[in-house]
């Protein structure tokens, strides 16, 4: 499991100093019904606007 989750989306409620994610857990989903092959085919469903 990742020790630190990095995030550059500073408009997210869970964004913390040094581009860290402060959420207790994260949910990453795929846009592709099969499997993602590129970062652009995924998104963070944990995002909440500040």
From TrEMBL:
Domain DUF1540 span(s) in chain numbering: 5-47
Superkingdom field: Bacteria
InterPro entries the UniProt entry points to: DUF1540
Pfam families to which the protein is assigned, alphabetical: DUF1540 (PF07561)
Name of this chain's protein: DUF1540 domain-containing protein
Species this chain originates from: Paenibacillus lemnae
Upper taxonomic lineage: Bacteria, Bacillati, Bacillota, Bacilli, Bacillales
